[in-house]
Specification:
The complex is a heterodimer. By secondary structure, chain A is mainly beta. Chain A contains no helices and twelve strands. In chain A, strands 2, 5, 6, 10, 11 and 12 form a six-stranded mixed beta sheet that branches. Chain B is an all-beta fold. Chain B has no helices and eleven strands. The radius of gyration of chain B is 13 Å and the shape is globular. The chains are: A mainly beta, B mainly beta.
Chain lengths: 116, 114
């Protein structure tokens, strides 16, 4: 069974400081991993994904994520946080074994607040 | 290129009624999936359509149904609405099935059941 864990419901960081939003996953095979961001009363916006290759993935708005197979983690990072980064962040996984099944399994989300 | 478009954005229904939500995928995308988002249950997969066929279904009762048309547009229907159906319903599209295809989401339809 596939699952995603986002251990922190809330992350607070000062503007200009680096930020990390944590995600661990569990799948039967190798995963496809995704990060999405949701602003208030909006849908989900795609940030980045890991398919294969380089473990460090760069995405939109200066975000990046590091895939760590041994720790089954895919933490989202940004070197310098902006107040406008304040939002709800979701990690999602799709099992590579279950190819053809397009659905994503989402974590419970982490609310990021960047303090001016 | 226009994104995923969902209508209506907001609606209020009464218990026992039914509702139909509409979704237009990104041009050229043939896969459309639906998700329900609630504060208690988070984001949950409802179903996926590809080439007018339901390919995958989540763990929801039969009151939740959907369909996809030849132009890839999709609708989902919820019959005999319950208070617990109040949620944000998100439609998403991708160019293909599975694999590393990115799934792009619409702004959602906010359903309130009273």
């Amino acid at each position: 069974a596939q699952s995603v864990a986002q251990p922190e419901d809330q992350v607070n960081v000062a503007e200009g400081n680096p930020l990390t939003v944590k995600c661990t996953y569990s799948v039967s095979g190798n995963p496809y991993l995704f990060w999405y961001v949701q602003y208030p009363n909006r849908g989900l916006q795609f940030l980045l994904k890991y398919i294969t290759g380089d473990n460090l993935v760069k995405g939109s708005y200066g975000f990046e994520a590091e895939f760590n197979k041994s720790q089954t983690s895919f933490h989202l990072k940004k070197p310098s946080a902006l107040v406008s980064d304040s939002a709800l962040y979701f990690c999602a996984v799709r099992d590579r074994v279950a190819s053809g099944a397009n659905n994503l399994f989402f974590g419970t989300g982490t609310r990021l607040t960047v303090i001016p | 290129k226009a994104g995923v478009t969902q209508t209506p954005r907001y609606l209020i229904k009464t218990r026992g009624q039914q509702v139909t939500l509409s979704c237009s995928p990104i041009s050229g995308h043939r896969s459309v999936s639906w998700y329900q988002q609630t504060p208690g249950q988070g984001l949950q997969f409802l179903f996926e359509y590809f080439s007018e066929t339901q390919r995958n279904k989540g763990n929801f009762p039969g009151r939740f149904s959907g369909r996809q048309f030849s132009n890839s547009r999709s609708e989902m229907n919820v019959s005999t609405l319950e208070l617990g159906d109040s949620a944000l319903y998100l439609c998403a599209s991708s160019s293909g099935q599975g694999g590393g295809n990115t799934i792009y989401f619409g702004e959602g339809s906010w359903l309130t059941v009273v």
